[in-house]
Amino acid sequence: MPTALITGASSGLGLEFAKIHAANGGDLILVARSGNKLEQLKQELTAKHNIQVTIVVKDLSVTDAAQQVYDEVKSKQLKVDYLINNAGFGDFGLFANTNWDKEHQMMQLNMTALAHLTKLFVKDMVAARSGKILNIASTASFQPGPTMAIYYATKAFVYYFSSALYNELKPYGVSVTSFHPGPTKTGFQDAADMHSSRLLKLMPVPDALPVAKKGYAAMMKGKRTAIPGLIDNVFQMSSKLMPWWFIIPTTRFLQGSEDVK
């Protein structure tokens, strides 16, 4: 069974992706900032599934962290067959009010680290003429998002970047899937300080496991894009069929509103 490298593997969707891959008998390389959580997960999965789990403690929001992850993986002579770029976070609030340092870290993690890891590992995949990449985007990637302007933009990057690579890499036996879940019970809302969002109050928020199963299945099938839920698909279709003069203020209403401080 192939080896999967998963970023943001200590919680949320990343944790569930790790459990799913381990249950299928695959070895793992788990990347996250929390060494204690990764070590606990390693012990659990190796005992339960008799697989090899390598942990890499790294904060991917730091410049050159992706290169350090790649170098550590290569130094251990490990081959990455599946790359799951799951690590990411958001921030809530009007752009005039939000903290630039946090947003800069968000862009570094959600876009730069994702693209850099892909750049590094995809060369090995092309040489092997096989490989699978799963990039976690969001329903946020389909339209601009007032009160989460930077986050929505980073996920649009993931969507377009992944779709372009799908075309470039398909002839070499490498698939690239962008996965677009809506709000999910992952701890994302706490990190983004989204407790006042109407969106979370008006719609059901699914558990991470069933969402992760759909993303993993889409990667295994080599799909270009995958949208897990009915409401998520409605959001995607609405962004295509309705004009942005309607979509953008509607998105702001659902996200919640605040005044410039």
Overall description:
Strands 3-2-1-4-5-6-7 form a seven-stranded parallel beta sheet, with helices on both faces. Strand 4 (82-85), helix 4 and strand 5 form a beta-alpha-beta unit. The protein is an alpha/beta fold and 261 residues long. It has a single domain, classed as 3-Layer(aba) Sandwich (Rossmann fold), CATH 3.40.50.720. The model has no long low-confidence stretch (mean pLDDT 89). Helix 3 (65-75) runs parallel beside helix 4. Helix content is 52%, strand content 12%. The relative contact order is 0.14.
Q: Main beta sheet: strand number and arrangement?
A: 7 strands, parallel
Strand order of the largest sheet: 3-2-1-4-5-6-7
For this structure, the CATH topology is Rossmann fold
- Strand tally is 7
Uncertain segments: none
Strand content: 5-15%
Architecture per CATH nomenclature, i.e. the level-2 architecture? 3-Layer(aba) Sandwich
Whole-number tally of structural domains: 1
| Alpha plus pi helix count | 10
Query: What structural class do helix, strand and pairing data support?
Result: alpha/beta
CA-based shape? globular
Topology at a glance:
Elements: E1 4-7, H1 12-23, E2 28-32, H2 35-49, E3 53-57, H3 65-75, E4 82-85, H4 100-128, E5 131-136, H5 149-169, E6 174-179, H6 188-192, H7 198-202, H8 208-221, E7 225-226, H9 230-241, H10 244-255
Parallel strand pairs: 1-2, 1-4, 2-3, 4-5, 5-6, 6-7
Helix pairs in contact: 1-2, 1-8, 3-4, 4-5
Question: Could you give a quick summary of the protein structure above?
Answer:
Helix content is 52%, strand content 12%. It has a single domain (4-255), classed as NAD(P)-binding Rossmann-like Domain (Rossmann fold, 3-Layer(aba) Sandwich), CATH 3.40.50.720. By secondary structure, it is of the alpha/beta class.
